[in-house]
Structures are given as structure tokens and as C-alpha cells.
Predict the structure.
Amino acid sequence: MSIVRRRRTAAVTVVEAARAPVAGPPAVTDQLPVPRSAEGDDATTAVAPAGAAELVALVQDGTAAGGTATGPVLLVGSSGGHLAQLLPLAGLWSQDRVLWVTFPTPDADSQLEGRRVVHCYHPTTRNIPNLVRNGVLAWRLLRSERPSAVVSTGAGVAVPFVLLGRLLGIPTVFIEVYDRIDSATLTGRLCRPFASRVLVQWEEQRRMYPHAIVIGPLL
């Protein structure tokens, strides 16, 4: 089966799954923002892949409801591969509705040139001081911006944003990275109890996240 046909088949399957009741943690009472179409006058240059369409379907289906925050969508991720898997989602919202949180690295600065970016502290791998610093940053940013949702692919910077976002009643979405098939990432294990939704990119990843929704590969 070709990759294109596989993605189309997966898209139909996931849209149906998104509309069906999903067993899992207690119901979330937050309102996920409804993304705009990737087409239109204010479309960004990012091209949404097949998997991003399933994220739109999931949000529009109202798997979480009741929130009132109207701020930007926070896209949180380390630079490199984590950021690369967030970039395709940028086309789902107008550029002025997205606030990026990532490392102040040359590659991230180049990829996000002209966009609204907040730099976080790094490295984050088993670095307690930077975890605390990013926790303070997350608390201040979440309270000042009141984002409509927090979406993250990790790595360590995701933890304080997902945890504090849930504490403040902000919908939080964690997307497991595409290259972890056999075991969950440490970030995924830490974020899973607090995320409003966990999304995965391969059906095989549901072994680690039984209640996750498969959105297909973002790369």
C-alpha cells in the first residue's frame, strides 16, 4: 500500500474515532480552540499534513468543552525534531493566533523568523534548575496570555506547560514523537496524567497510550 493511500485510509479511520466516545480519564471541562482552515487569506506558508486534519476534526468534535480562554494557541517544543513536528500545525491557525515557545537556537530562530516567539531555558534533559526556570516562565506566560490551548511534542519543556496548563483549566494536548514506537518517552509518561488529550502518530504507539488518538505522521 502506498504511503499516500495509507495516510488517506488513516485519516478516515481517525476522523471516525474522533467522533466516537473515547474511554479514558475523567471528562475535561476545557474548551479546545477551533482552528481555522489551512486555506484562506490569512493562511501561513506551513502546509498541514494529513495528520493535522485529524487534529482539526478532534477539536471541532468538542472532546473538551466549557472553557472561556480566548488567547493564542501555545505551540511548545524543544528545537530540532520536536519543533519540526510542531511546524506543520502552524497552518491550522492564523499566524497572529499562535505563540511559540522554544529554545533560542539558530535553527529555531531561522524556522520561526517573523513569528511571535518566547524563548525558554535549555538544556532540559534531567536539568532541575532549568525545569524550575521553565516552570516560572510557564506560570507567568499562562496567566498573562490565557491561551486557548497548549499543544506540545516535548521534550522536557512540555512538562511545566502541560502540568500548569491543566492546573489553570487550559486545554493541553501532548503529541508523542514519531520515532518512539517501542516505549513512551519520559516526557510522555510525565505529561500523560495531566494532558487533556494525548495524540500519537502511529497505531503501534497506542500500546503505550491506550486512550490516545492516532493522527498519523507529522513529518
Observations:
- The two ends are 18 Å apart (CA to CA).
